[in-house]
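Ops channel
N.P.: pipeline sanity check, posting one input/output pair.
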């Protein structure tokens, strides 16, 4: 029959609506049970029942533990004051709720006294803390704020605005105080907008008869916004302002052709180099040839002005320095390269002349003297592209031919190569931007494109496609906003690479006067 009793107990436990018989009793039940048990024990003792049985039942319901009045701590015994009542510690593991002791009136008075005393002593503590913080931090903590308002809200006019003020501010009704205080616009922190670079050229000009020769320099853009183009035996000038074209000269013999052109800065004079080793000076306004200078034994493929000096490079590797004012124009000559000179460029301050040749070398020459300051032999092909940095007079960019394909940046003061970038194709021209820290390069085989580079990281900004054949020459207009590329596809394309807002454009420096060259040239 025992298993029937077990089943009944399990069923009773599973029923949630009935009290748990074998669980611990609640506090009030335990107190009632203890009171009843004590009364029963006293009644049983008087009746002669066995006291041991009642004592055993009482000990089952008592909470065991140490004496509440004494607490043991290591090395110290704390005695409970006489007459003080100590609460009973409930037995661990029992699900009995905790009822805190109620404070009597005396405890409330003591607590109120302690709080009042603490508030009275607080100012003295603050003074001590502020003095200590001032010594440690060097400033008063009371004056230090992480966030603070830098400007106060504008004061609203009393009674709103009058009709004139409302019309001035574009308001049609009453201007309330709250609207003035909370309608102040804050400046936006938007990032700087990226510059727009057109992918297509601004204009395309036909150039029939343009000689497909990498070593020649057949275009140049003058200070008066005029573009000179050499087409075989003829030289033309394109006027950007009027979009008109004028032929300046035509060489008399069919075997001769113009191999290089260069404008003199701040004047109407144009220098021409020919296949027959002549250097001619032309006045574009009058269309007259002012002077013809000899001195080379082969074609003149590169020209560069350092007024009043004109430097010319020939196919034999020689560089002549001409003073166009003197009857004996050749001041001195140097054997600069072992092969043809295909690039010449004077620095903006006129201190150095850079020359590039078909012998893969770059030489830096002083104003006077026949010994180069530096000679760079890092390129592995002909060096035609030469360009000086407009804001760093001692920085030079050079570009190599088909086998080399590198753009190298040089510090001519120390002779160090600052960077070398593989462009992937033949470099025929380089132009720096005076407004941006950028440069543009023109390329031949195999890309036939223009690339804008960020300096000094030399990362690509954009690539400009358009030419069907390799680009032979590159030059920039006077303000540097546009570049012109001449290609073997007999087209000249104008690209707006470095356009600048007119409000932020830098004022151009005054061009040097021509020094009366008209009367001095013989």
């Amino acid at each position: 029959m025992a298993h029937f009793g077990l089943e009944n107990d399990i069923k009773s436990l599973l029923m949630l609506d009935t009290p748990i018989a074998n669980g611990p009793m609640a506090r009030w039940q335990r107190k009632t049970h203890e009171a009843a048990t004590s009364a029963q024990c006293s009644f049983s003792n008087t009746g002669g029942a066995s006291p041991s049985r009642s004592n055993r039942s009482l000990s089952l319901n008592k909470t065991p533990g140490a004496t509440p009045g004494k607490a043991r701590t290591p090395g110290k015994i704390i005695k409970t004051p006489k007459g003080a009542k100590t609460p009973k510690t409930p037995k661990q593991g029992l699900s009995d709720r905790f009822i805190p002791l109620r404070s009597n009136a005396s405890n409330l008075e003591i607590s109120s006294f302690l709080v009042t005393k603490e508030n009275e002593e607080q100012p003295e503590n603050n003074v001590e803390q502020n003095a200590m913080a001032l010594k440690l931090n060097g400033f008063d903590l009371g004056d230090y704020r992480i966030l603070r308002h830098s400007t106060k809200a504008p004061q609203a006019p009393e009674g709103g605005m009058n009709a004139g003020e409302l019309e001035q501010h574009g308001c049609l009704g009453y201007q309330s105080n709250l609207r003035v205080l909370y309608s102040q616009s804050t400046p936006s922190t938007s990032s700087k907008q990226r510059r727009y670079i057109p992918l297509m050229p601004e204009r395309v000009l036909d150039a029939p008869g343009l000689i497909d020769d990498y070593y020649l320099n057949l275009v140049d853009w003058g200070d008066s916004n005029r573009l000179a183009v050499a087409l075989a035996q003829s030289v033309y000038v394109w006027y950007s302002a009027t979009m008109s074209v004028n032929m300046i000269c035509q060489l008399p013999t069919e075997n001769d052709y113009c191999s290089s052109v260069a404008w003199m800065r701040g004047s109407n004079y144009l220098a021409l180099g020919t296949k027959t080793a002549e250097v001619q000076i032309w006045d574009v306004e009058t269309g007259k040839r002012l002077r013809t200078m000899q001195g080379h034994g082969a074609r003149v493929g590169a020209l560069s002005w350092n007024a009043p000096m004109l430097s010319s490079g020939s196919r034999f590797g020689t560089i002549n320095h001409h003073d166009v004012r003197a009857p004996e124009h050749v001041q001195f000559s140097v054997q600069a390269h072992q092969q043809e000179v295909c690039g010449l460029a004077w620095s903006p301050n006129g201190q150095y002349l850079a020359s590039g040749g078909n012998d893969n070398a770059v030489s830096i020459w002083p104003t006077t003297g026949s010994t180069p300051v530096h000679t760079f032999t890092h390129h592995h092909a002909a060096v035609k592209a030469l360009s000086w940095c407009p804001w760093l007079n001692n920085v030079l960019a050079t570009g190599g031919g088909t086998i080399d394909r590198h753009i190298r940046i040089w510090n001519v003061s120390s002779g160090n190569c600052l960077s070398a970038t593989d462009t992937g194709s033949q470099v025929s021209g380089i132009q720096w931007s005076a407004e941006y820290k950028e440069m543009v390069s023109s390329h031949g085989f195999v890309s036939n494109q223009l690339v804008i580079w960020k300096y000094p990281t030399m990362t690509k900004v954009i690539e400009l496609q358009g030419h069907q054949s390799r680009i032979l020459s590159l030059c920039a207009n006077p303000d540097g906003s546009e570049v012109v590329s001449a290609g073997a596809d007999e087209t000249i394309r104008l690209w707006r690479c470095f356009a600048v807002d007119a409000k932020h454009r830098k004022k151009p420096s005054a061009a040097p006067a021509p020094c009366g060259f008209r009367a001095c040239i013989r």
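N.P.: looks fine end to end. The chain has a mean pLDDT of 78.
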